[in-house]
From TrEMBL:
Coiled-coil spans in chain: none
Position of the signal peptide: none
InterPro entries: PrpF-like
Gene Ontology MF: a single term: isomerase activity
Keywords: Isomerase
Family according to the record: Belongs to the PrpF family.
Organism superkingdom: Bacteria
Name this protein carries in UniProt: PrpF family protein
SUPFAM superfamilies from the UniProt entry: Diaminopimelate epimerase-like (SSF54506)
Pfam families named among the record's database cross-references: PrpF
């Protein structure tokens, strides 16, 4: 053999696509995974097209998901996410992908990896190993298959699909320093050009840092390609991201932060304004509560990562945060309307009435399996050891009829 040959599925989850693999088919030594994953997607590629692999040339299309048996009694499956660089071969396991989370429950159900009702509603509790958090996925099933057809539209995806309700339970404190890792709603960073900017660093769904667009000479109505081509702006945002990484303890220094491409996320936020999304549709200011432009793995995201949107919703309920200061006066934190490059999405965060923390964050997505079979990668790592325990048992999942 001249290539690895692995069973795989290619699935759209929300506004992302990923190669989905079963843990049983991967090397038992996880140190071999990064090289294999980069080869599967065609990274590194200085042409930013990943033509020699399954990647699509942008961060939202350069992803790997791994499904395995749950290692926790309160979950039905384990789900590990890998963000793979496009220009480089960096493989980052430091955060979850919320969009692809929507496909994990239906995938596990369709593969027979969990038990569930023949018809009705299935609930799969997903343990995301990157964040250590539980995600409850609810979706309709018929004749033993997860439904795909439905009437839900999500910005950035043409057509409609069956809804998958994602509840990110206890979404804060994914790496042990609480909702506000620095202990403050606002921190002030000094950039290399001498300007001082206020930021809010938050750890909810994914560690993130938010800055007002006006403080970095940015525009939350801008097309993602405009942002990518604004080298000065992207440099400022990356500098903020790296400083935040060090301050909140994700990395020891700026060089280490540069190599950790997936976290923290960095985003500009701004007040509502008229803009056109990528499809050309116009959105009035009164149809939004705020606007966002988020950077993901060094590129302006074409929509907004689900985890980033959830972090934004959680930051919105923190009094005095950068996000709270740009909100429309009548914004509803349970139904926050976010203006993104692909249109307006709605997310919400629920506060714990007793403790005052954030108990859950919710978003609706759609998903669809596009292809399955085998994926090939050049022989760059050995596959001597494979685990077979995953295929031996089904894992019961919670269901409602």
């Amino acid at each position: 053999m001249t290539q690895h040959r692995l069973p795989a599925a290619f699935i759209r989850g929300g506004t992302s696509k990923a190669v989905v693999l079963k843990r049983a088919d991967l090397p038992g030594n996880e140190a071999e995974w990064p090289t294999l994953f980069a080869a599967i997607l065609g990274s590194p590629d200085p042409n930013m097209r990943q033509l020699n692999g399954m990647g699509g040339g942008i961060s939202s299309l350069s992803k790997i998901c791994v499904i395995g048996p749950s290692t926790r009694p309160d979950a039905d499956i384990d789900y590990t996410f890998a963000q793979v660089g496009v220009v480089n071969d960096a493989v980052d396991f430091s955060s979850n992908c919320g969009n692809m989370s929507s496909a994990m429950g239906p995938f596990a159900y369709d593969e027979g990896l969990v038990d569930g009702p023949l018809n009705g509603q299935a609930i799969v509790r997903i343990h995301n190993t990157n964040s250590g958090k539980i995600i409850a996925a609810r979706f309709r099933v018929a004749s033993g298959r997860a439904l795909v057809a439905g009437d839900l539209t999500i910005p950035g995806v043409h057509g409609t699909g069956a809804p998958v309700v994602l509840d990110f339970l206890d979404p804060t404190d994914t790496f042990g320093r609480g909702l506000l890792p620095s202990g403050q709603q606002i921190d002030c960073f000094t950039l290399q050009d001498g300007r001082e900017v206020n930021v809010t660093m938050i750890d909810a769904a994914v560690p993130s840092v938010f800055v007002a667009a006006s403080d970095v000479d940015g525009d939350t109505c801008a097309h993602p390609s405009e942002l990518d081509n604004d080298i000065a702006l992207m440099t400022r945002l990356e500098e903020i991201r790296r400083q935040a990484s060090v301050v909140i303890g994700l990395t020891a220094d700026a060089d280490s932060a540069a190599r950790r491409i997936a976290t923290p996320k960095v985003a500009m936020v701004g007040t509502t304004a008229h803009y056109e999304d990528l499809s050309g549709q116009s959105h009035a200011p009164q149809a939004q509560d705020l606007q966002i432009r988020m950077i993901s793995a060094g590129q302006a995201h074409r929509a907004v990562p689900v985890t980033g949107a959830l972090a934004l919703a959680c930051a919105a309920v923190v009094k005095g945060s950068v996000v709270a200061t740009v909100l429309a006066p009548d914004a509803d934190p349970l139904n926050l309307r976010i203006g993104t490059p692909s249109g307006i999405i709605t997310v919400g965060a629920t506060r714990d009435a007793e403790g005052g923390g954030i108990s859950a964050a919710r978003i609706l997505r759609t998903q669809r399996r596009l292809m399955d079979g085998h994926v090939y990668a050049p022989l760059q790592s050995t596959l001597k050891s494979r685990r077979s325990d995953f295929k031996k048992e089904k894992i019961p999942c919670s269901t409602t009829k």
